[in-house]
Specification:
Elements lengths: L2 H36 L9 H20 L3 H21 L2 E2 L2 E2 H22 L2 H21 L6 E2 L11 E2 L8
Antiparallel strand pairs: 1-2, 3-4
Length: 173
């Protein structure tokens, strides 16, 4: 019986040491978590080529959705176009000393606003005219950005897969 208090005291002392070690570990984990939460996330950046690839995709899907009478999808894609254009403008993108943001703002944004209005009206006739203007705006922007060889067209144009003509300008008919 005399050994029982000594064993109990040893067990209690071991538990106290264990609790202290665990509390220190928890405190260290809390410090790490606070440091992680305080560090701002690294922004995700795409290059201009990737962004324009998305623009081309949204334009294509916008035209296909509107031509199918799916005005909800067309509105979604028009929004994506505008959002991406706004991102390019805000980023002040410059490529080979060309202010791409300004080109997008002057050439593309008004055309996007035009198709957005046509989509809201659910008017196939107005949409067709405004969509054609959007395609012209894209090519105008490409010419201003010194990449006139990137020639966007409509998906339903003869042989125009990916809503782009791949033949050089001097070969196009």
């Amino acid at each position: 019986m005399k050994r029982f208090p000594a064993v109990l005291l040893t067990v209690l002392l071991a538990l106290v040491v264990l609790v202290i070690v665990l509390l220190r570990h928890v405190s260290h984990l809390e410090e790490q978590l606070t440091a992680i939460q305080a560090k701002p996330a690294e922004p995700f950046h795409l290059g201009l080529g990737e962004v324009m690839g998305y623009q081309q995709r949204w334009i294509d899907k916008l035209g296909l959705a509107a031509n199918a009478g799916n005005w909800g999808a067309a509105a979604f894609y028009a929004d994506e176009l505008k959002e991406t254009a706004d991102d390019i403008i805000a980023a002040r993108v410059v490529r080979e000393n060309q202010d791409i943001g300004s080109l997008v703002k002057s050439a593309l944004v008004p055309a996007i606003d035009g198709v957005t209005d046509a989509v809201a009206r659910k008017s196939p006739a107005i949409f067709a005219t405004r969509y054609a203007s959007l395609v012209v705006a894209c090519n105008t922007c490409h010419a201003g950005a010194r990449v006139p060889f990137i020639h966007v067209t409509t998906s339903d144009a003869a042989g125009a897969r990916w809503n782009q003509v791949f033949a050089p300008a001097d070969v196009q008919k």
